[in-house]
Amino acid sequence: MSIEKETQNAIRHNGLQAAFNMKIQTIDLGHQPLFLAPMEDVTDPAFRLLCKRFGADLVYTEFVSADALIRSVKRTEQKLTILPQERPVAIQIYGRDVDTMVEAAKLVEQAQPDILDLNFGCPVKKVAGKGAGSGMLRDVPKLLEITREVVKAVNIPVTVKTRLGWDDSQKIIVDLAEQLQDCGIQALAIHGRTRAQMYTGEADWTLIGEVKNNPRMHIPIIGNGDVTTPERAKECFDKYGVDAVMIGRGSIGRPWIFEEVKHFLQTGEKMAPRAFEWQTSIIKEHVLRSIEWLNDERKGIVHSRRHLANAPAFKGIDNFKPMRIALLRAESKDELFQLIDDIPNQFTVQ
Fold first, then answer.
1. What pLDDT digit, counting tens, does each position of 190-200 carry?
2. Choice among 51, 122, 183, 236 that is catalytic
3. Where do the domains of the chain lie?
4. Strand partners, 200
5. Pairs from 259-264 (Cβ < 8 Å, separation ≥ 24)
6. Nearest one of 276, 277, 333, 346 to 305, comparing CA atoms
7. Average pLDDT of 39-48?
8. Gap between the Cα atoms of 173 and 349, Å rounded
């Protein structure tokens, strides 16, 4: 064991691992980094660039179907588009067949991401029900074979994102983490739910902490699940010792959450609430970026609706339901932006 590794192990066991910057292979992600979780129909380049601007240290693409990629499906190939400003960036793939995943991994490598991530955590029926995503948790030997073969097939760092297990009776993550490490992955992200939970209930970080504090683990551990406030992010670093915190749904409609969390981690104080006009200016920018990305005004607006529905600027406004419906039905950017601009004239906003 190298002197550097011995020193890191000693510091970890003394509870001072946070003194080191987190690295995935040679990629330095800084101290207590924050990651944007991969989310289908959310983490396209338009949104990733906003999150990067507000402090996300690593961003992930939407997940990419290995089957669709090797069949050259245009929409899937489009997901491989990454921009220089968003680096470091990870491309995530999912599938259930070893050869298909290996071939897809090689295609992804040609897109030159910084990291290739394997999705063994998606719980939705159309993925997990076919044996991919978190469905792989029911076939651990194949999951490990895919991981080993992908690691051997590419020269970029390979990471994994998964869940605690299939259900409450099969929370296998502690043993699985060691097995994945033995396959050669460079980092492991764990969502604190089982597949059976989907996105319901509360994320359980206890086993994430157990993986992190396992003395046999030496790769970075990334915690994910229900991080929606700066206080919760700090608690996850402090209580569970994770190397990084991944934020998913808490960023939808609120890409500046990364800035809020970083400010709190560095100062112990919360940022002053953002003015309504400032928040809506970011919303408009995101809509414009989506239109540009998709090269279609209506598609860009439709693609932005999930963010509009979750935007904190519009929460807590009395009698706002009819306006919310109108915002989500807008068909053009002029119509949408006019509705947004009229809100302070019609409602009391924060």
1. 999 999 988 89
2. 122
3. 15-267, 276-346
4. none
5. 259/54, 259/55, 260/230, 261/34, 261/55, 261/227, 261/230, 261/233, 261/234, 262/34, 262/55, 263/230, 264/230, 264/231, 264/233, 264/234
6. 333
7. 95
8. 45
Q: What is the pLDDT of residues 152-187, one digit of tens each?
A: 999 999 999 999 999 988 999 999 999 999 999 999
Report the alpha-carbon distance of residue 45 to residue 49 in Å, rounded.
Answer: 6
* Residue 128 identity: A
pLDDT in tens, 233-256: 999 999 999 999 999 999 999 999
* Annotation says 122 is catalytic: yes
Go through 215-227 and write b for each residue having 16 or more CB atoms within 10 A of its CB, e for each that does not: eebebbbbbbbbb
Q: Encode burial over 165-198: b for 16+ CB neighbours within 10 A, e otherwise.
A: bbeeeebbbbebbeebbebebbbbbbbbbbbbbe
Closest C-alpha among 56, 118, 115, 117 to residue 85:
56
The 3-state secondary structure of 152-191 reads HHCCCCEEEEEECECCHHHECHHHHHHHHHHCCCCCEEEE
Both structure tokens of 231: 């206080």
Distance, CA of 197 to chain centre: 18
- Tokens of residue 58, six digits: 């690593």
Q: What is the CATH number of domain 15-267?
A: 3.20.20.70
Whether the predicted model's global pTM rises above the 0.70 cut: yes
Give strand pairing partners of 91.
116
